[in-house]
Amino acid sequence: MDTQTDSKIRLLLRILRFPLTRLLLLSYILFYVTFSGKVFIQTFTPSPVPSLIVGLLTVANLLLVYVSFAHFVERRSVSELTLPGMGRELGIGLLLGFGLFTTCVLIAMVLGLYRIEGIDSWQQVLPTGGALVTPVGEEMLFRGVVFRIFEEVFGGWVALIVSSVAFGLTHSGNEGETLAGIASIAIVFGPMLAAPYMVTRRLWMGIGLHGAWNYTMGKIFSGSVSGGQTGQGLFKTTFVGPELLTGGSAGMEGSLIAILVSATASVILLILAVQRGKIVPPSWKRRA
After folding, report:
1. Who's near 229: CB < 8 A, 6+ residues apart?
2. Alpha helices in the chain (DSSP H)
3. 200 and 89 in contact (C-beta within 8 Å)?
4. CA 9: distance to chain centroid?
5. With 0-12 CB in 10 A as exposed, 13-18 as middle and 19+ as buried, what is 261?
6. pLDDT digits (tens, 9 = 90+) for 105-120
7. What is the C-alpha end-to-end distance of the chain, expressed in Å?
8. pLDDT tens-digit series, residues 119-147
9. Distance of alpha carbon 136 from its chain centroid, rounded?
10. For this UniProt entry, which segments traverse the membrane (predicted)?
11. What is the reported pTM?
């Protein structure tokens, strides 16, 4: 390899490793893989088993892209996806997601807004491929890329704000989503999903929390997921009352109940991150 070719390769790698380049390139690739997988699942795999197979293949593709980019371009180990401790953190996230949304339902029932009228079908509890792809793809994109790269330069608090706003804005195209729902996703649910990464420095707890929240909302309690069409879940339910408390077409995510419950969880996790010294300062303060 001659000197001129070697210098061109070094220049290309410098461009690829620039924070803005990494942010845009990896975000685009992950978004494309996630979106393509979900479209394929919705279009060609209506039954549960093929849907799950395609979902698993899409998740494998996402992991391959993410790890390959980290290894060949960023030249770093992927500590946020290491396997030791994965089961524990994923399990805690799943319990948190199920527990937090179930708490919202119980509050709504006490207030007389939510009523369970019976069992719909046990078959409804089978997860779809999309239920696997969405939390993995979105956590890699918004926490593994947007949050992590902004944190490298501007520190943890700026990264929290930017990644949460970006997370909220991407839901604006969802059918049935409202301005209040988008705002709640950006202001409350974005921080709720970023906080586990800040505490553990890994993605597993956030993936579990994200997946269990969506699954419990749609597959257990038959609710609208982020403004999507109201799903068929385990229970036949009715949810009636003022939009402030029900979220309207945005689903319970847009309700005051879910906002207060999720905000409480976010604050507790962020306090834990501060106490453990996990808030990364801006790069210029780290160099000082």
Report:
1. 175, 176
2. 3-17, 19-44, 48-69, 86-110, 129-139, 148-154, 156-169, 179-184, 190-200, 204-215, 243-246, 256-275, 283-287
3. yes
4. 35
5. buried
6. 999 999 999 888 888 7
7. 39
8. 877 777 888 898 899 999 999 999 999 99
9. 7
10. 20-41, 53-73, 94-116, 145-167, 179-199, 254-274
11. 0.92
